[in-house]
Design brief:
two-stranded antiparallel ribbon, 5 helices, mainly alpha
C-alpha cells in the first residue's frame, strides 16, 4: 500500500460537531451564525447553477456573477466572530450596492407585462431555478435576521440587499420565462 498524503480538504476538527469561525472561536455546527452563512453559501451555489443555465456573457449572467461575489463577502462577514475580529459591517454591502440591485430589478421589470395574477414557480428550467434561488434567498434573510436577534451586528444595507435580491429573482424568473417563450403558470384555487 502506498503512503498517500492527507488531503488539505479535511481536518477532522469538526468531527465532534463544532467548527471554527473566522477568528478561531469554536461553535456548534447548529449555531445561528453557521445557519446564516451556510444558507448564504447554499444560495450562492444555487445562483451558480442558475448562471450556468444562461447564455455565456449575457447581461443576466454577468449580473449574477457580481451577486455571487457579493454573497461570498457577505458569507465571510457572517462567518467572522466579531468579538475577536472587528469588521465594519457597512463595508460588506454599501448603500450604492442596494441601489444597483433596485436598478436591476427595475430594468428587468420594465421588460415584463404587468403582473395581474399570482403565479406558481415553474416554466423553463432557468426560470424554475430562479424561483429556487428566490426561496433560498428568503430563508437566508430569515437566518440573518435570526442572527441579528441574537445580538450579531449586521448592517441595514446587508439586510436590504438580501431582501431586494429575492425580489430580483422573482422578476428574473418572469423574464426568463418570457425570453424562453414559456407561459407563466397562473395560480388557480384547487388547481
Amino acid at each position: 500500500m502506498t503512503n498517500i498524503p492527507k488531503s488539505p480538504l479535511y481536518t477532522r476538527t469538526g468531527d465532534q460537531g463544532t467548527t471554527a469561525l473566522v477568528g478561531g472561536t469554536r461553535v456548534p455546527k447548529t449555531h445561528a451564525r453557521l445557519e446564516a452563512y451556510g444558507t448564504v453559501d447554499e444560495l450562492n451555489s444555487q445562483i451558480g447553477l442558475l448562471a450556468s443555465l444562461l447564455p455565456d456573457g449575457g447581461e443576466d449572467q454577468l449580473f449574477l456573477r457580481r451577486v455571487q461575489a457579493t454573497l461570498f463577502t457577505v458569507g465571510s462577514h457572517l462567518a467572522t466572530d466579531q468579538s475577536v475580529m472587528q469588521l465594519r459591517p457597512t463595508a460588506v454591502v454599501t448603500p450604492e450596492m442596494v441601489v444597483e440591485m433596485e436598478s436591476e430589478i427595475d430594468r428587468v421589470d420594465s421588460l415584463l407585462p404587468p403582473l395581474r395574477l399570482f403565479i406558481l414557480p415553474g416554466g423553463s428550467h432557468s426560470a424554475s431555478q430562479a424561483h429556487v434561488c428566490r426561496t433560498v434567498c428568503r430563508r437566508a434573510e430569515r437566518r440573518i435576521l435570526n442572527l441579528v436577534e441574537e445580538g450579531a451586528e449586521v448592517s441595514e444595507e446587508l439586510i436590504a440587499y438580501v431582501n431586494r435580491l429575492s425580489d430580483y429573482f422573482f422578476a428574473l424568473a418572469r423574464k426568463l420565462n418570457m425570453d424562453e417563450k414559456k407561459d407563466e403558470i397562473i395560480w388557480r384555487k384547487n388547481g
